[in-house]
Amino acid sequence: MDRFLTADDLSKSLRADVREGLTATPKTLPPKWFYDERGSELFEEITALDEYYPTRREREILTARAPDIAAATGARTLLELGAGSGEKTRLLLDALAGTLTTYVPVDVSADFLEDAARGIAADHPGLRVRPVAADYEQHLHLLPGGERTLVAFLGGTIGNMPPAERIGFLGGLRATLGDDGFILLGADLVKDAGRLVRAYDDAAGVTAEFDKNVLRVLNRELGADFDPSGFEHVARWNAAEEWIEMRLRSVRDQHVRIGGLDLDVSFAAGEEMRTEISAKFRRERLEAELGAAGLALAEFWTDPAGDFSLSLARPA
Q: How far is it, in rounded angstroms, from Cα 234 to Cα 273?
């Protein structure tokens, strides 16, 4: 395994993000800190909820279109950003079996990544599996490529970035590709606002627990004394930006001590801290942002319900 990210790197990044976010107005925290072991378990539960459709819809598209993706790209290297368990990726690996020589899964969790990579290697004995522990936003230029590389960025994670950051990130991907490379991008689509809100505020409260888990991460990693019961989960549709916002709302006036940062933070009753944005797209917006990053849309697929999309893009 290539390791561009150490435990010390993660600690420094967490400290910087928390200090910056909790001293800002309004307060924010980046969504990447949801995903400790418990957060990852909760997200897996979320993907199985009736209200949360993106994972199912993306899998439907991959099931139907993986042979088309293989035919269009002839990929020899598959590099997956935020690989996680790699379950959806197995559909691509099977379809690409005729050309693919190397699979490069990238994730911040080295232990989880190592286990997933071992399982994929066992199931694909002729495939070189080269896991990389990295933060793809910081280490993009260090990631290994190769001839006819297909970069997969699935799950709608691109929506967690604001527009300027998205375009910059896509431009960075473009810079890592040869002229024969492709990007496969999963993106959720604009739809009924009520349905979107329910996807991020389910009746069983799993997403609320997931949102509050970031407070437990800060308590454990930074010696903070957040009381998760002092916050309630809020999901709101921002029509102007066409994104969902997840927030934690303080239910009372309270003060929090973050010992690891020597930082005291006050929350007023009703004050909200944003923990995630999840942008939803229209085809025209995706095409324009890809174009601004030096990429051309080659294929655009949706599930039969038109809920989710996969875009295949190549250097313009």
A: 10
Strand 128-129 with 102-107, pairing: parallel
Residue 230 corresponds to which tokens in the numbers above?
A: 């002092």
pLDDT in tens, 129-172: 999 988 888 887 778 777 899 999 999 999 999 999 999 999 99
73 near 182, Cβ under 8 Å? Answer: yes
Q: Which single residue is written with the structure tokens 């309004």?
A: 26
CA distance 136 to 5: 10
Residue segments in the chain with a per-residue pLDDT below the cut of 50: none
Kind plus residue range of the DSSP H or E element containing 233: strand 231-238
> CA–CA separation, 57 vs 63, rounded Å?
10
| Cα separation values, 57 from 42, 154, 243, Å | 19, 12, 18
- 101 closest CA partner among 71, 132, 78: 78
Instruction: Report CA torsion sign: 21, 215, 239, 279.
Output: positive
What's the chain's average pLDDT?
A: 93
